[in-house]
């Protein structure tokens, strides 16, 4: 359902069920800033419909490429904050609708976090305890492209805007923490978040007051909430069944060029233990070692098709020893 909440009016239409609604909102925010998104999409070689299809699931790095093109086009050091400020707070996704229809704000957030893979490509938010408050940790879910600090600021500011929207502006953020360095203009950050903002912290975190967590939502509808949770459970199960080893493969692909690809690093990126990761892969009839080998082979074939230089191929495949690379090529009959 599409839900636009206001004290006077409630509008309901069929909801987006996967991550297309997220990128569509990003495109619309860019447009409100006067950015010609069609031109940017043409420049990066992506059909704009990829971002506008609310029932679709855009490729992992598509949004990252669009962010980079927008930054190059605008040169705006605060593009993430400005895009979030331009984003129209509305509930046009199944996960959002479950959040605002919950009995309390905390229940809504907990439900949204449970089903967040329907909205994003991974576990972007993790709930932590910071007595007497609640900590919402924002993780960088990366593929080949690193997540930019502008994207992190956009996500954080968008969440805060959505929280206020769901609670009729009663949600109180105690503190906002970013991992990245301070770029100036603290007044703008405090204006957006209405809370103290810190930089260079161990994790990117939104600290929410316990009173806000326990707020009863004015648009609570527990019957609707429970029905939507049932739909989401089915969708989430199908998504997990089809995507776990793909998620592992994508983390391997992202970490190989950095020379830091191991079962420990991949498991950490997925917020799992190595043992759990290996067990889930075994349940799907494969192993981490086999998936690593298959991913490397696919990378090499893709690089060859793109006619990349040999040293680039070796780097992308994560080899530091040319002899190991040659042995792998022989094993693959390449």
In short:
With 334 residues, the chain is α+β, with helices and mostly antiparallel strands. It has helices spanning 20-32, 37-44, 49-52, 62-74, 79-86, 94-100, 105-114, 149-166, 186-193, 210-213, 222-255, 263-269, 274-283, 288-305, 310-316, 322-331; strands spanning 2-5, 10-13, 125-130, 133-138, 173-177, 197-198, 204-208.
**Molecular shape:** globular
Rg over CA atoms: 21 Å
The number of helical runs is: 16
Q: Termini distance? A: 51 Å
| Structural class computed from helices and strand pairing | alpha+beta
Major sheet characteristics = 5 strands, mixed
What would the average pLDDT be, to the nearest integer? Answer: 85
Q: Share of helix among residues?
A: 40-55%
The run of helices and strands is: EEHHHHHHHEEHEHEEHHHHHHH
Tally of DSSP β-strands: 7
- Relative strand content: 5-15%
As residue ranges, the low-confidence spans are 1-14
In the sheet with the most strands, the strands line up as 3-4-7-5-6
Helices and strands in order, then pairings?
Elements: E1 2-5, E2 10-13, H1 20-32, H2 37-44, H3 49-52, H4 62-74, H5 79-86, H6 94-100, H7 105-114, E3 125-130, E4 133-138, H8 149-166, E5 173-177, H9 186-193, E6 197-198, E7 204-208, H10 210-213, H11 222-255, H12 263-269, H13 274-283, H14 288-305, H15 310-316, H16 322-331
Parallel strand pairs: 5-6
Antiparallel strand pairs: 1-2, 3-4, 4-7, 5-7
Helix pairs in contact: 1-5, 2-4, 5-8, 6-7, 6-11, 11-12, 11-14, 12-13, 14-15
């Amino acid at each position: 359902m599409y839900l636009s909440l206001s004290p006077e009016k409630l509008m309901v239409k069929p909801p987006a069920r996967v991550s297309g609604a997220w990128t569509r909102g990003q495109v619309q925010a860019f447009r409100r800033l006067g950015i010609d998104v069609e031109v940017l999409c043409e420049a990066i070689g992506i059909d704009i419909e990829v971002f506008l299809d609310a029932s679709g699931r855009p490729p992992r790095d598509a949004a990252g490429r669009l962010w980079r093109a927008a930054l190059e086009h605008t040169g705006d050091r605060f593009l993430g904050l400005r895009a979030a400020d331009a984003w129209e707070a509305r509930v046009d996704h199944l996960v959002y609708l479950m959040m605002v229809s919950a009995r309390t704000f905390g229940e809504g957030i907990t439900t949204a976090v449970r089903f967040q893979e329907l909205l994003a490509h991974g576990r972007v938010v993790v709930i932590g305890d910071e007595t007497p408050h609640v900590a919402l940790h924002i993780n960088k879910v990366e593929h080949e492209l690193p997540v930019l600090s502008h994207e992190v600021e956009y996500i954080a500011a968008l969440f805060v805007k959505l929280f206020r929207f769901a609670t009729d502006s009663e949600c109180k953020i105690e503190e906002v923490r970013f991992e990245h360095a301070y770029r100036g203009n603290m007044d703008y950050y405090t204006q957006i978040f209405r809370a103290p903002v810190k930089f260079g912290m161990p994790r990117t975190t939104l600290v929410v007051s316990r009173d806000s967590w326990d707020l009863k939502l004015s648009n609570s509808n527990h019957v609707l909430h429970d029905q939507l949770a049932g739909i989401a459970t089915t969708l989430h199960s199908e998504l997990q069944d089809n995507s776990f080893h793909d998620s592992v493969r994508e983390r391997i692909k992202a970490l190989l060029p950095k020379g830091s690809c191991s079962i420990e690093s991949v498991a950490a990126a997925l917020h799992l233990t190595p043992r759990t990761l290996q067990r889930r892969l075994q349940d799907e009839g494969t192993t981490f070692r086999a998936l690593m080998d298959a991913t490397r082979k696919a990378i090499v074939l893709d690089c060859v098709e793109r006619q990349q230089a040999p040293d680039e191929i070796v780097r992308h495949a994560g080899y530091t020893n040319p002899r190991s690379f040659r042995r792998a090529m022989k094993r693959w009959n390449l």
